[in-house]
Every structure is written in C-alpha cells, then in structure tokens.
Amino acid sequence: MPSRLRFPKPFHIRRARDFSRVYRIGKRARGSILLLVGAPNGLGHPRLGLSVSKKIWKHAVKRNRVRRVFREAFRLSTTDLPPFDFVLIPAEPRLLPNTKDTVLELTRLARKLHEKVERASAEDRTGGVTR
C-alpha cells in the first residue's frame, strides 16, 4: 500500500490516559454526523481516537464501517486540522455516515473547536476580561 494512503501510528490515540485527558480538558463541538472532543496536544500534528459504542450499533459490521469512514475522513483532512487530539463519536445513532459529508463536518467542527480553545486561552491571559 502506498505510504500516502496509510494512517500512520503517530496519528493514533491509543492510551487510556490520552483519551481521559481529552475528555477531561477538551472542548466539544456537535454536528449532525459526529461529536468532536478535542484538546491541544503539543505534537505539531493532529491525532485521532474513536469511540463507537455497542449501545449505538449492536452489529460489529456497522461499528467497523463507521470507524473506517471516520478514519478516512480524518486522513483526508489531516492537513486542515489543528494540532489537537481528537476523539470522534457518532452523533446520530441510526445514521451511517459517508466520507464526503464527514470530511466537511470534521473540518468545520475542528475549526470551531480551535476557536473555542483560542478564546478560552485569551480569556485566561486577560484574567477573564474580554474586549
């Protein structure tokens, strides 16, 4: 497989402590396809974690399809994403997403999340006073 089509290991979130950190300090943005939770990672590139529960889809085939679509959407939009750790969670239980719509929503929500983090850090620097 050509290397440009791969999803390299440095772009994965695998450790429970990384997931916990994102859930604990991360900001959230919800769309019609996915819920995005993200936190800056200081690595210079984005990383992806997936959370696709059995509560939503009982069949592994559907869960795996959603994971594949989310991974591919992330891979296609990596250059447009800020250096955050992202956890993607399906927003609509009965909606099997397609890649094109997921890419568009992921980039839109990542921009929104980045703005939230920038606003919060600006407020921290000014002592909570916004102008």
Any descriptors?
single chain; 131 residues; alpha+beta; Ribosomal Protein S5, domain 2; four-stranded mixed sheet; 3 helices
Mind explaining what this structure looks like?
The chain is α+β, with helices and mostly antiparallel strands and 131 residues long. It has a single domain (3-126), classed as Ribosomal Protein S5, domain 2 (2-Layer Sandwich). The protein is 43% helix and 17% strand. It has a four-stranded mixed sheet with strand order 1-2-4-3, with helices on both faces. Strand 1 (27-30) and strand 2 (34-40) form a beta hairpin. The longest helix has 28 residues, at 99-126. The protein is globular. It starts with 15 loop residues before the first helix and ends in a 5-residue tail after the last helix. Its EC number is 3.1.26.5. GO terms for molecular function: 3'-tRNA processing endoribonuclease activity; ribonuclease P activity; tRNA binding. It catalyses: Endonucleolytic cleavage of RNA, removing 5'-extranucleotides from tRNA precursor. It is an enzyme of class 3 (hydrolase). InterPro entries: Ribosomal_Su5_D2-typ_SF, Ribsml_uS5_D2-typ_fold_subgr, RNase_P.
Principal-axis shape equals globular
Structural class category: alpha+beta
CATH architectural label: 2-Layer Sandwich
Biggest pleated-sheet summary:
4 strands, mixed
Count every beta strand, where a strand is a DSSP E run of 2 or more residues.
4
Strand content: 15-25%
Number of domains: 1
- Show unreliable segments: none
Say what the CATH topology is.
Ribosomal Protein S5, domain 2
List the strand order in the largest sheet: 1-2-4-3
Tally of separate helices: 3
Radius of gyration: 15 Å
Give the overall average pLDDT: 84
Order of helices and strands: HEEEHEH
CATH class: Alpha Beta
> Share of helix among residues?
40-55%
What's the end-to-end separation, in Å?
Answer: 52 Å
Family: Belongs to the RnpA family.
InterPro entries: Ribosomal_Su5_D2-typ_SF, Ribsml_uS5_D2-typ_fold_subgr, RNase_P
Organism: Saltatorellus ferox
GO cellular component, one term: ribonuclease P complex
